């Protein structure tokens, strides 16, 4: 195959998917556990956490929720991992009036992402140049997309933030996109006021994360199609 054909094949494999694909490992309900399904869930959440850590270490600005967690960590003297953990637990409390029910994936989301973000921040180098930071941020966004695709397709329950978004949508009737935007802007503003870092990395995350997840969904769908 010539270079042109190889490039076209690569582009075809990276074509975004419009919906959440149905995978062989998808659960029937939020507590439908199997060894392979839980393993895929944990791998996906770990990839997500390490990706978020790369965005942090890019030194160009964080994802909105990590801006909030970082600001919280600075004010309370916590590590970023613990601040992320407590943020997830706090958001989970919002589920009570929204009548949302957590699944195994919801609780795993809080524990594993918090842990792997801290591991990544402790071990990945903090970038000191713009190009190094840009590469770290883009790789991080790509990994967050891959991790999201893996854990979402397990069907073991949304993360705390996604559950709050859908719960508010269901209760108020406000469009999901508007609810998500309102939540993201609010936590970003609060996080910034608390001292969390925003910058071009924050903008890149906002612009590219949706496409990263969609592309990852497409790859998963094509790899698991019969």
TrEMBL record:
Transmembrane segments: 38-56, 76-96, 133-156, 200-221
Database matches in InterPro entries: YczE/YyaS-like (IPR038750)
Keyword set, alphabetical order: Membrane, Transmembrane, Transmembrane helix
Keyword Lipid metabolism annotated: no
Protein name: Unannotated protein
Protein's organism: freshwater metagenome
């Amino acid at each position: 195959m010539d270079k042109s054909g190889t490039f076209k094949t690569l582009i075809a494999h990276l074509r975004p998917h419009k919906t959440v694909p149905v995978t062989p490992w998808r659960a029937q309900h939020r507590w439908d556990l199997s060894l392979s399904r839980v393993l895929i869930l944990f791998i996906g959440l770990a990839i997500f956490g390490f990706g978020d850590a790369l965005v942090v270490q890019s030194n160009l600005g964080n994802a909105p929720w990590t801006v909030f967690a970082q600001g919280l960590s600075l004010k309370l003297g916590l590590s970023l991992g613990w601040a992320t953990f407590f943020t997830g637990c706090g958001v989970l409390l919002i589920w009570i009036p929204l009548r949302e029910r957590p699944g195994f994936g919801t609780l795993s989301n809080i524990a594993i992402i918090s842990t792997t973000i801290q591991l990544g921040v402790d071990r990945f180098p903090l970038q000191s140049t713009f190009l190094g930071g840009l590469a770290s941020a883009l790789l991080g966004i790509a990994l967050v997309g891959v991790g999201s695709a893996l854990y979402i397709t397990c069907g073991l329950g949304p993360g705390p933030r996604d559950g709050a978004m859908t719960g508010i949508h269901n209760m108020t009737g406000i469009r999901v996109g508007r609810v998500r935007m309102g939540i993201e802007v609010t936590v970003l503003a609060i996080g910034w006021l608390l001292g969390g870092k925003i910058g071009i990395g924050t903008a890149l995350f906002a612009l590219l994360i949706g496409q990263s997840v969609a592309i990852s969904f497409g790859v998963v769908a094509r790899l698991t199609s019969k």
